[in-house]
């Protein structure tokens, strides 16, 4: 099949590359010439495991190419995939400038019938707007389909090649058949819906996963007060197939380019039809507060943070990505600076992107985990990179000036801490002091 993908971000690039690997002829378009030049040279503008190898393989096979020329590229394809960004506006609504802008450019360029397949996450009703734009601007018939994307950053290639399901929302029988044909090699689990339901499935899925995370984070906060261990609680809950074990890891709250923006957008979508989504508003509020527990725990240990040197391990919003959009590390470091602390930060991959967000005289970006931890008054672990898991708590203690470890991702076990003198605070688990668990709090009822 001949495909043109508009937007070479995490979704457009990975989808385009994976579709080419299935034998389709794919042209990827972006308006950022520096991105396209990198891709034409075989370089990858984002960090995503396995992507570079697939780009090289499929470019060499002549199935994959990159261009900034949208109007030329759309002639090539029968299916045009929209994968441009839909970031948040100040009020939380999705900004449709890029998606409607791209649709307009396509409408003004096409010279024949096309299938427009929207992979971007868009509010209910957006694909109808896109269809109307085509009707107004072009004489050529288009069939519009909402095919939302569910890949995760850090495992985007694997997720794309092994999707749990493909959702296809379209009113067009021709589009339905072609899109089914395109996805059949990936899965048999293809759900056909109307357009609005497909758009809603994407937001509902992200909102539900975000709800699971805020739920377990609140359980963790209660566990800390009653002396229970949230990792055991989550394990015990997860064996129940109705609950499931995934997305029950307590931590510093969700970040990234999707959950924060998509939860806000769904609250707005509901608001536009006079529905107050109370549950989701709480999910967002819990998430916003959860990251500040790191600061509260530091203050409990160190009292005043002013003048203290705090090491931070992990700047990306999750491991295996260089994406720092809405990373909890940003607000945590900003709070540390606000409290008068200085910060020594390290991330295996994401430092260059994070530095663009926060270039501050009191933040020193280090080139190793040891350099960041050396002589600090406390270490905060904010991203669970395997590189950090490989460092023993005894080693961490040796590097630090004062033996304080705040583990925002529950990386280290009681056994590993037993032989150290660390003061250790994690999330929803008992604190440890000198290798010994703190006493279980007395319950007064
Ligand atoms: N990042 C994810 O993990 C993920 C997963 C599922 C769904 N989504 C959704 O997919 C969409 C894309 O997300 P992303 O993270 O890949 O975005 P991104 O910001 O990484 O990339 C978008 C790209 O589109 C390009 N672009 C914008 N307008 C263009 C135009 N008119 N012509 C050509 N290129 C244009 C931009 O230059 C940019 O490179 C969003 O709606 C997002 O919510 C993202
Ligand atoms: O048990 C968990 C699972 C995740 N997280 C956090 O949640 C955030 C998001 O993680 P994840 O979902 O793995 O990454 P994303 O790449 O943001 O993927 C989400 O957002 C994408 C964009 O919409 C969707 O396509 C994916 O299905 C959806 O998982 C990260 O900050 C994680 O640290 C937790 O705190 N606890």
TrEMBL record:
Its EC number is 1.1.1.22. It comes from the Bacteria. Gene3D superfamilies: Cytochrome c1, transmembrane anchor, C-terminal, NAD(P)-binding Rossmann-like Domain. Pfam families: UDPG_MGDP_dh, UDPG_MGDP_dh_C, UDPG_MGDP_dh_N. Substrate binds at residues 150-153, 202, 247-251, 255, 318. NAD(+) binds at residues 30, 35, 86, 121, 153, 261, 325. Pathway: Nucleotide-sugar biosynthesis; UDP-alpha-D-glucuronate biosynthesis; UDP-alpha-D-glucuronate from UDP-alpha-D-glucose: step 1/1. The active site is at 258 (nucleophile). It catalyses: UDP-alpha-D-glucose + 2 NAD(+) + H2O = UDP-alpha-D-glucuronate + 2 NADH + 3 H(+). One of its GO terms (biological process) is polysaccharide biosynthetic process. Keywords: NAD, Oxidoreductase. SUPFAM superfamilies: 6-phosphogluconate dehydrogenase C-terminal domain-like, NAD(P)-binding Rossmann-fold domains, UDP-glucose/GDP-mannose dehydrogenase C-terminal domain. Residues 311-414 form the UDP-glucose/GDP-mannose dehydrogenase C-terminal domain. The keyword NAD applies. One of its GO terms (molecular function) is NAD binding. The keyword Nucleotide-binding does not apply. Belongs to the UDP-glucose/GDP-mannose dehydrogenase family. PANTHER family: UDP-GLUCOSE 6-DEHYDROGENASE TUAD. This is UDP-glucose 6-dehydrogenase. The lineage of its organism: Bacteria, Bacillati, Bacillota, Bacilli, Bacillales.
């Amino acid at each position: 099949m001949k495909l043109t993908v508009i937007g070479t971000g995490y979704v457009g690039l990975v989808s385009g590359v994976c579709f080419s690997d299935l034998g389709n002829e794919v042209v990827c378009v972006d308006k950022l010439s520096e991105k396209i030049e990198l891709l034409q040279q075989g370089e990858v503008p984002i960090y995503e495991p396995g992507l570079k190898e697939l780009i090289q393989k499929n470019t060499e096979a002549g199935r994959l190419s990159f261009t900034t020329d949208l109007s030329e590229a759309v002639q090539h394809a029968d299916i045009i995939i929209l994968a441009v960004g839909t970031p948040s506006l100040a009020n939380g609504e999705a900004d449709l400038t890029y998606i409607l802008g791209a649709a307009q450019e396509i409408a003004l360029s096409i010279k024949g019938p096309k299938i427009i397949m929207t992979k971007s996450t868009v509010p209910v009703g957006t694909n109808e707007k896109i269809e109307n734009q085509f009707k107004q601007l072009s004489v050529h018939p288009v069939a519009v389909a909402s095919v939302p994307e569910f890949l995760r950053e850090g495992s985007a290639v694997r997720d794309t090649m092994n999707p749990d399901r493909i959702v296809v929302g379209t009113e067009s029988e021709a589009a339905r058949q072609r899109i089914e044909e395109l996805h059949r090699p990936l899965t048999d689990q293809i759900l056909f819906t109307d357009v609005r339901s497909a758009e809603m499935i994407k937001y509902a899925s992200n909102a539900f996963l975000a709800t699971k995370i805020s739920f377990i984070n609140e359980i963790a906060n209660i566990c800390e007060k009653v002396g229970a261990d949230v990792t055991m609680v989550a394990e015990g809950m997860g064996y129940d197939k109705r609950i499931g074990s995934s997305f029950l890891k307590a931590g510093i709250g969700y970040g990234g380019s999707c959950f924060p923006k998509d939860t806000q957008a769904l609250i707005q979508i509901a608001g536009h039809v006079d529905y107050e989504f109370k549950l989701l508003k709480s999910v967002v509020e819990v998430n916003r507060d959860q990251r500040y527990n790191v600061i509260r725990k530091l203050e409990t240990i160190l009292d005043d943070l002013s003048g203290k040197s705090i090491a931070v391990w992990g700047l990306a919003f999750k491991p295996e990505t260089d994406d720092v959009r809405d990373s909890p590390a940003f607000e945590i470091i900003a709070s540390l600076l606000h409290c008068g602390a200085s910060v020594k930060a390290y991330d295996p991959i994401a430092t260059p992107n994070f530095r663009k967000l926060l270039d501050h005289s009191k933040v020193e970006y280090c080139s190793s985990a040891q350099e960041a931890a050396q002589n600090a008054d406390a270490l905060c672990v904010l991203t669970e990179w395997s590189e950090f898991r490989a460092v023993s708590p005894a080693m961490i203690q040796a590097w630090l000036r004062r033996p304080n470890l705040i583990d925002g991702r529950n990386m280290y076990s009681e056994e590993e801490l037993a032989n150290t003198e660390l003061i250790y605070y994690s999330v929803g688990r008992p604190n440890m002091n000198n290798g010994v668990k703190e006493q279980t709090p007395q319950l007064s009822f």
